[in-house]
Fold this protein.
Amino acid sequence: MTKPPLLILLCAPRGFCAGVVRAIDAVERALVLYGAPVYVRHEIVHNKYVVEGLRRKGAVFVKELDEVPDGDAPVIFSAHGVPKSVPEAALARRLFGIDATCPLVTKVHREALLHHKRGRHILLIGHAGHPEVVGTQGQLPQGATTLVETLEDIATLSFADESALAFVTQTTLSVDDTSDIVRALQARFPAIVGPHKEDICYATTNRQGAVKRVAPLVEAMIVVGSANSSNSQRLREVAEREGCPVVRLLLRADDIDWSVFGGIATLGITAGASAPEVLVEEIMDAFAARFEVTVETVSTADESVFFPLPRELREQAAE
Ligand code: 10E
Ligand code: SF4
């Protein structure tokens, strides 16, 4: 039986960013250098497949530091960043803490701290409860930041001193939504200071850019990633807003609903910053089993960002 044709447009860039590569490498390196168990506070990155793979190699994932027993085993803080209280508590307990926070998240922590030192109240644009938001707010004393999630939130804001305000953002937000929020904040509080545009990172920006190009050209789109991955959810939203009729965020090939994807002739595929390429390949193979597939890569940006491992792992590595 002949298979129907399917054109797959593969977004580039997609998948792992430099911060995710560094964080996963940190866990793997710690396992090699120190042996199991290596404790990891929170999912190292928001991908179940990655987490399961590391768990099989001896990583033990915990929600909070108090689940880590006293001893010499390393405890790694996830790429999303942690409140200041976490490394402090690790130090107090003489645990071997290793910080795998992405340097681009740490940069936002530093920005927030600097604004605070200069006497500014900080508006943090981000999603309530997300670990990166919890980590950024946790760099400063309670009450030093106000979370802004939506445009609507801005109407409810009021401050004693509107001349001493600053904004910072989560790194994985929608570029378009955030620019609307920043513009509205600047209109409401003309003296507010902040970064040139926002703190959305290169990887988030580039992945959304590629989806914008591909989504209008295809009947359906798959975003490879976990449901708890903020940047992956934003890719799904971008594809939907560009008018792609069917968009699904899927972890892997088993999750493909063939009643939805069985009758299409064009498909776009991208992957969130925490989704491994092997899962993109698995999904492409599943389509190749049912369709006569042609693949074209649509590239909208080049990436060459690399972050070295956390210092503790680098020094050891050199020995
Ligand atoms: O939910 P997020 O998109 O923040 O995280 P992720 O683990 O899916 O992707 C990596 C992004 C990080 C670490 C936040 N800057
Ligand atoms: Fe770093 Fe951006 Fe990747 Fe987050 S999405 S880990 S900020 S490079």
